[in-house]
Amino acid sequence: MTTTRVTPEEIVSSFQTRFPQGITQPRVERHNGGTLKTEFVHVWFRIETGLLKEAVKHLFAFEPYPHFAVTSGYDLGDTIELVYHFSLFYGERGREISLNMTVTLPKDNPVIDTITDLIPGALISEQEKQEMLGVQIRGIPKDARVFVADDIPEGVFPWRRDETGPDKLVRNLHEGDP
Amino acid sequence: MTTISRTTYQIPIGPIHPALKEPVNFTFEIDGEKIINVDIRLGHVHRSIEWAGTKRNFIQVLYLAERICGICSYCHPMSLALAVERTAHIDVPERAEYLRVVHSELERIASHILWVGVAAHEIGFDSVLFLTWQVREMVLDLIEYLTGNRITKGITMIGGVRRDLTAEMVPRILETLQQLKKQVQRLHRVMLDDSTIQMRCRNCGVLTKEDALKLCAVGPTARASGVRKDVRLDQPYFAFGDLDFEYTTPDVLTGEVHGDVYDRIIVRLLEIQQSIDLIEQSLDRLPAGDIVAESKLPALLASLKKVTGEGIGRMEAPRGEVFHYVRLTAAESPYCWKVRAPTYNNILPWIPMLLGQQIADIPIIAASIDPCMSCTNRVTLVEDNQPSLVDRETLHQLSLEKTRRLRL
Questions:
Q1: CB of B407 within 8 Å of any CB in chain A?
Q2: Which pLDDT belongs to residue B408?
Q3: Best interface-test mutation with B: which of A68, A87, A88, A95 has the largest number of B CBs within 10 A?
Q4: How do residues A114-166 score in pLDDT, each as one tens digit?
Q5: How far is CA B378 from the centre of its chain?
Q6: Which CATH number fits domain B49-340: 1.10.645.10, 2.40.50.140, 3.40.718.10, 1.20.210.10?
Q7: How far is A146 from chain B (nearest CA, A)?
């Protein structure tokens, strides 16, 4: 484990060294707040889908317990993108770095490995991606619906923007108001 | 002769159950009185708000976000605003950043006081519940004085806040804070000097620090297990980087961390005091200047329609980190809006807290993470400047009438 203060650029560089061809579009955003303009950092990059699990393992080189916030996801037509949001170096004032990794999955085979064996707290987020986006999480320890109601038919994924999306189930209540 | 091999039985609790204040479904596997397994099912009040947000413009989404939760009606729209501001590179005026701190901490005080009352109720101490309701009214009155509303405050705007705080308002705020300090000291005595509460809550519903870290717990639930995690300090958004405060873990008061229900009570009571102090510091240092980056809403919407990119907004809500992600594609509405409320991360930590405990412990352990599935149950109508209160029964009758009109 690294104990000295690591800069966001060093984190990006470490991932690029570990995955020479797998990291693209790295971006370091610096934000600040207040009259003292206290700075904090958000790091973004894209990673090849097959490397995600190894990338999550690599986070442990910086932080014994990388904090997993959630996975965001959206349908881009031919592909589905998932953004994994983590925090490193929390617990020391102003030092935390938000790290966001994006993966692209083909719509015809949207499969990705679970990360729950590394971070058990990711379970609900992975279940949510399965039921909302129709992504298959390989190795997920609990394969049940968590948010979507039982009366939503199988094969309907509320965050999809194609024929498997929720449009046919949408009912505009105001249209029935006399 | 037949033999019975099964020695355990199941108890379903929720989604509607007197022991729960929020709709969630537990299925407990019980051996005698002891919980040996638990399964949790959510989603009973899922309203597809993220989906609805992608059909509205950015100002409309703010008001939608405000209705995700009646208690966190400030931190949700504000986290969305932070995400949009970072994506669109909008600089928020310094005065607005201080005002954002004031509203944020008022929300925390109201939420934590409410929680203390609910926790007391769950262990049969209803006189404290009514005391907390009385104290919370002082905070809600102050919120109404500053924003015009008690619950859905309508104070958030992308690039700042919607209402300024004038010099004439400061004495009333300070006076309320002074009264609050006395009442909070009283709550400290009632909750922490009472040996019965200590006997009931100490070593009950323990979440170890390791489990809190592995299961990604947030907010007072994580801090009560000794995890130093608070977005206000970790990534000082708004003006929190200017203010003097520290991580609140139970050892600050007792010198030790148990990670139990009692420690969660300690953390929240200490955080109420901390929030009062943060508001006083903010009022002391409140800089002059604008309260919003762009006051003309059509101009703001027009500029947001040209933005492409993605960003995150994170805040320390009363229950823990609230997280919003947006993806903008030079369109009227966000292409993607992901909302992650703190309870989402505090669901899995419930499991180690509940395992090995007694059936009678379920209500207080369930309440101890301050779960929030949804809220709100009354409406104030204002017509011709004459306010009138619609009570629950009238609201119920109105919804029945509307359902009949819709022929559902």
A1: yes
A2: 52
A3: A87
A4: 999 999 999 999 999 999 999 999 999 998 888 888 888 999 999 999 999 98
A5: 19
A6: 1.10.645.10
A7: 6
Q: Is A165 on the interface with B (CB under 8 A)?
A: no
Q: What are the residue ranges spanned by the domains of chain B?
A: 49-340, 381-408
B228 touches chain A (CB under 8 A): yes
pLDDT of residue A1: 47
DSSP B215: T
Distance CA(B112)–CA(B184), nearest Å, equals 11
pLDDT(B188) > 50: yes
B193 CB burial (10 A radius; 0-12, 13-18, 19+): exposed
* Domains annotated on chain A, with CATH: 8-176 (3.30.460.80)
- Kindly state the tokens that stand for B25: 């479904």
DSSP A34: T
- Residue A27 contacts B where some CB pair is shorter than 8 Å: no
pTM over 0.80? The answer is yes
Q: Yes or no: say if B347 and A124 are a contact pair by the CB < 8 Å rule.
A: yes
Chain B nearest-CA distance from A121, in A, is 4
| pLDDT beyond 80 at B6 | no
What's residue B400's pLDDT?
A: 81
Question: Are residues A94 and B285, on separate chains, in Cβ contact within 8 Å?
Answer: no
